[in-house]
Design goal:
Elements: E1 22-28, E2 31-36, H1 46-61, E3 67-72, H2 87-99, E4 103-107, H3 114-122, E5 125-127, H4 130-140, H5 145-154
Parallel strand pairs: 2-3, 3-4, 4-5
Antiparallel strand pairs: 1-2
Helix pairs in contact: 1-2, 2-3
């Protein structure tokens, strides 16, 4: 599959967007896999941030979607770091990811930098196995909307 391609088995045509930093595979109406496939070092660039923001937009708007797995095409690195100029945008993305209505799973293989750690922590679950992430994701697609909403509401952050 080409880097910008998507199987887009379900969902709006926007899920097939012209991705250059990510691979987005909509595996069913309730389940999507997003694969980071960008710079050789896993550094988060402005293009990576823009595409992650687009994916989060889609997650927020898609009421059928229940589970999203984020993994990496590079076996040795998940996500590295971003430049300091992108810090406010990065923080906004992390908050939106944490509050997204779908259950988000970070499937972490390899090393990750500070930004990768932050991203994984913004996800609802962190799994160190691609196979286990897929297994958990498929199981979660069978949960009803109320159960998923209760799981998401249990992940709260103290107000500052």
């Amino acid at each position: 599959m080409d880097i910008g391609a998507s199987s887009n088995g379900s969902g709006s045509p926007a899920w097939a967007g012209p991705w250059t930093q990510l691979r987005v595979d909509r595996l069913s109406p309730r389940y999507c896999r997003v694969t980071f496939d960008h710079s050789p070092t896993g550094t988060i660039t402005a293009s990576t941030l823009a595409e992650i923001a687009e994916v989060i937009d889609l997650i927020e708007q898609d009421h059928d979607l229940k589970v999203v797995v984020f993994d990496s095409a590079k076996p040795d690195i998940y996500l590295a770091d971003h430049d300091s100029e992108s810090e406010p945008a990065w923080r906004d993305l992390l908050v939106r990811l944490a509050q997204a209505p779908a259950v988000t799973i970070a499937s972490i293989l390899g090393n990750f930098g500070a930004a990768g750690k932050e991203f994984a922590l913004a996800c609802d679950l962190q799994v160190a196995s691609r196979e286990k992430a897929e297994e958990v994701a498929i199981r979660l697609t069978h949960f009803d909307d109320e159960a998923i909403a209760q799981m998401k509401s249990a992940k709260t952050f103290p107000e500052t």
